[in-house]
Amino acid sequence: MSAAAPAPPVVTRIAPSPTGTMHIGTARTALFNWLFARRHGGQFLLRIEDTDRARSTEQATQTILNGLTWLGLDHDGDIVSQADRADRHAQVAHQMLAEGSAYKCFSTQEEIEAFREEARAAGRSTLFQSPWRDVPAIDHPDAPAVIRLRAPRDGTTVIRDAVQGDVTFRNDQLDDMVLLRSDGTPTYMLAVVVDDHDMGITHVIRGDDHLNNAARQAQIFDAMDWAQPVWAHIPLIHGADGKKLSKRHGATGVEEYAEMGFPARALRNYLARLGWSHGDDEFFTDAQAIEWFDLGGIGRAPARLDLKKLENLSGQHLSTMSDDDILSALHDWSDRAGRAPIDATRLRPAIAIVKDASRTLPQLLDRAHFALTSRPITQDDKSAKALDTVSRGILRELTPHLQNASWSRDALEGVVGDLAQSKGLGLGKLAAPLRAALAGRTATPSVFDMMLVLGRDETLARLQDAANSES
Questions:
Q1: CA triplet 451, 456, 462: central angle to 5 degrees?
Q2: Which residues touch 159 (CB under 8 Å, ≥6 apart)?
Q3: Residue 247 annotated as binding?
Q4: Cβ(148)–Cβ(178) under 8 Å?
Q5: Structure confidence by residue, pLDDT tens digits, 113-168
Q6: Could you report how far apart the first and last alpha carbons of the chain are, in Å?
Q7: Looking at 104, 243, 244, 247, which residue is catalytic?
């Protein structure tokens, strides 16, 4: 008994149309394909479906590439342009014509519409049935014609879907779709099938809005005697109200989330959990996602976008990121936002004390304001109220004690605590003027953390400035 043939290597693809921004749903589809390919040691390919020449633009193509790069979803091999393969698509259509699985149809648009109007009036199906389906070539007129698929009229077409289960379509509800237009250009349905076959795609993982397309595409695979890929149609992303995600729900494009300051790894984590699960795990690394991802974990119900969950995951990722990774992400974010370059020398010492309380990169940068600002510190309205005559006198008295203190957290807490006790004050009473002096704000990291980051000289200088300021 011979051994079973090994399974072919996994090959997945993402095939966006370059007609606008990179939708968050496209990003999730790309992520699922990338995870599945990486888990199985396979390939993740990129095809740009740019056959709509009127709407496809180089700028939109670059937006897609930038989105994939920012997300960290590296593709294998060269990028395939569907438009560049039009001759190959036409070749397959003519091969099907020669083999009898397709036929020429000379019906005009007016004749097709007349057929449908008559069918509507008679209460019949308006699915067009071409009168040219069985007309021999010798009787064909010398006129422009489309090439149509000779689809089966009886029985059913069954899509064995790894997510949806078996989905059955009655063949009498599927028409003889056009494969090649009368001007010789291929249709989307034909192009997708030919490209998937030629690229060796083993698994088609895409939105369930393509499920009906799968039935039609399966008929082309069968007509060409090509093996069908594994189908996996994933539910679409909905807004919090349960309706299909749109602009009214907020950000829908990947670049918008990048500009909002979410680290790419956080968005990857969140999108992976948006419709797929691994037990109760919410926070996980890329390595874990690759190890765990399988098609069986994808649910059949639409996932709902929840910005608060994304923010929570983003905060967890920021707290575990290295200083270098955070700085790199901040530089990328500031470039996108058109901000001035970040002073990494000043920021780096503050990262450790601000990242745990931050959920986005802008929040982290805002909490690190004290380290990035320069003397003289400008107080906002709320913090300025903390620098009254009494508070400035206490800061003036505190300064010489700090000059001689060991610059450690315990020593600093001891010095400030002793002075507060001598004044009959709680430690918290000194926090507000210290925050005002060190950061010019009321919401800051711990005053002792800020002192350690700023160092002795800068801390004392800021305290002296505040003590000598006029109320």
A1: 70
A2: 166, 167, 168, 169, 211, 214, 215, 218, 231
A3: yes
A4: yes
A5: 999 999 999 999 999 999 999 999 999 999 999 999 999 999 999 999 999 999 99
A6: 94
A7: 247
Cα dist. 294→35, 38, 76, 205, 279 in Å? 9, 11, 20, 11, 12
Q: What are phi and psi of 312, to 5 degrees?
A: -65, -45
Q: Which residue range is the domain that position 116 belongs to?
A: 84-234
Which of these three, 210, 234, 258, is where a domain ends? 234
Query: Per residue in 162-194, pLDDT tens?
Result: 999 999 999 999 999 999 999 999 999 999 999
How many of the other CB atoms lie within 10 Å of CB of 350? 24
CA–CA distance, 221 with 190 (Å, rounded to integer): 10
Q: For 443-465, give one letter per residue: b (16+ CB within 10 A) or e.
A: ebbebbbbbbbbeeebbbbbbee
Q: Indicate whether 168 belongs to any domain.
A: yes
**Whole-angstrom Cα distance, residue 263 to residue 283?**
14
Residue 94 is part of a domain; what is its CATH number?
3.40.50.620
Q: Is 243 a catalytic residue?
A: no
Into how many domains does the chain fold? Answer: 2
The Cα 308–Cα 319 span in angstroms is 17
Apex 66 CA angle, 62 and 72, nearest 5: 150
Domain boundary among 234, 252, 278: 234
- Pick from 356, 366, 328: which is nearest to 344 by CA? 328
Q: What is the 3-state secondary structure (H, E, C) of 103-131?
A: EEECCCHHHHHHHHHHHHHHCCCCCCCCC
3-class secondary structure per residue, 351-387 = HHHHHHHCCCHHHHHHHCHHHHCCCCCCCCHHHHCCC
C-alpha 64/C-alpha 26 separation (Å) is 9
Distance between CA 371 and CA 19 in Å, rounded?
43
Instruction: Report the alpha-carbon distance of residue 189 to residue 345 in Å, rounded.
Output: 55
